[in-house]
Amino acid sequence: MTSRIVQIPLDPALLAELDRVSRREKVPRAAVIRQACRAYLRALRDRELDRAYVAGYERTPETGSVASTQLRVAERVLPEERW
Q1: Alpha-carbon distances, residue 37 vs 26, 48, 49 (angstroms)
Q2: Which of 34, 43, 76, 83 is 20 to 30 A distant from 5 in Cα terms?
Q3: Using CA atoms, how far apart are residues 56 and 37, in angstroms rounded to an integer?
Q4: 22, 29 in Cβ contact below 8 A?
Q5: Could you write out the DSSP letters of every residue in 45-82?
Q6: Contact, 53 vs 47, CB < 8 A?
Q7: Cα separation values, 33 from 9, 21, 46, 48, Å
Q8: How big is the CA angle at 80 (ends 78 and 83), to the nearest 5 degrees?
Q9: How many structural domains is the chain composed of?
Q10: Over the stretch 2-44, which tens digit does the pLDDT of each residue have?
């Protein structure tokens, strides 16, 4: 993967915290920032999926019969799951 160098302004407190994490975790500051960016983007995608899920149920609400069927299936399947 080809990396590109970017410059971003950081306030001194945030930079100091990044440096503390970098030293504690024994990874370069850039690695901490990359991991934080990935986590942020993953959380953003998760929120978008949640909104889409809710919107789908708002457009087509679940009926009582579907909910009771799902509950019966879950009661049978979940006890067999290895958590």
Answers
A1: 18, 17, 18
A2: 43
A3: 29
A4: yes
A5: HHHHHHHHHHHHHHHSPPPHHHHHHHHHHHHHHGGG--
A6: no
A7: 13, 10, 20, 22
A8: 75
A9: 1
A10: 999 999 999 999 999 999 999 999 999 999 999 999 999 999 9
| Domain-located, residue 68 | yes
- 44 is a domain residue: yes
Residue 65 placed within a domain: yes
Evaluate whether residue 7 is within a structural domain. Answer: no
Contact 33, 17 (CB under 8 A): no
Amino acid identity of residue 22, one-letter, is: S
- Per the structure, the complete domain to which residue 17 belongs is given by 12-80
- pLDDT band, residue 1 (cuts 50/70/90): confident
pTM score of the predicted model: 0.69
Structure tokens belonging to residue 61 = 């609400």
Q: Which residues fall within 8 angstroms of residue 31, CB to CB, at 6 or more apart? A: 22
